[in-house]
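Quick log. Single chain, no ligands specified.
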Amino acid sequence: MNAKTISNGILRAVAIIVGVALLVYFLMKITSVIAYLAIAAVIALLGRPAVLFLRRKLKFPNTLAVVSTMVFMVGLFLGILALFIPLISEQSKNLSLLDIEDFKSNINALYFEILEYFGATTDSVDDLIKESGLEESVIQGLDLGFIPNFLNSFVNVLSNFSIGLFSVLFISFFFLKDSKLLQNGILIFVPDQKEGNLVTSIEKINNLLSRYFGGILLQLFILFVIYTVTLLIVGVENAIVIAFLCALFNIIPYVGPIIGGVIMITLTMTSFLGADFSTVILPKASYVLIGIAIGQLIDNFFSQPFIFSTSVKSHPLEIFLVIIIAGLLFGVVGMVVAVPGYTAIKVILKEFLAGNAFVKKLTKNL
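-> predicted structure:
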């Protein structure tokens, strides 16, 4: 091996490293565009069965079927938002008519009743707050200098949301209209001899993920019904909105149900401020907790195993480990995208590495 060969190898390795670094930098700069494409792809997967139904059963033209599906989905989204308008309006009205001193006395009374019920003292709670450093954080957070920054952030979020919403709707329309659009874009970067494998993989991924996201909607609907019935029995105002919000947190695996449960119990307790803690607030919160437990038992032992076995064809334990690992590596976002991403990887491995013994065992149910 002469010096020229070694130098060419070094230059080639350096060029590859620089190319990979530039690619990573480029992808980091267009993360918002990638997010728009990912969200649009999910919307297209959810809307795909409706488009196929309109085209095959009702004989709609392709464009009319796509437009009808998009109008339905946007209307559904706006309808969900409209559910929160009465809640916000009512809370605004309550705040405008609120007797601040009476409200403070009710909060203080609830605080002392909770301490008395659990046998705690104000001194022990104060010591705990001081040790945690929470008091200093709250005082620093009350600095009025945050107001301009908050307003700027709010305007930026609103602007980005408007741009993102338009972009997602625009991309979703073309993904639904031409189901091969994303596929053809990916095929540009694939060698000709591998195109057949990739096309087969994409078709399988579309079918599996369409069933998966449909199953997720069914899962959220079941929890929504259970939570709504529970809150209506207890007598909580705006039960439908609260149930929908808390059921929506179930999209985040494992952590989401805990957050939703805490929010539901908190809103239940604050709905009965001024009532006796031991005879009214605690029993009602306990009933809500029982409803949450029933919902989670049904979800864990019926909904999730059904979704994982029939849609993504993976064992619940396998999914559990994948979600935990993704959560440790990428946080909450990783937990949300863990199952779709893992399913796509399994399908691709089966198509491109079908002869590998490990891949055969991993993908035997696909």
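The radius of gyration is 26 Å.
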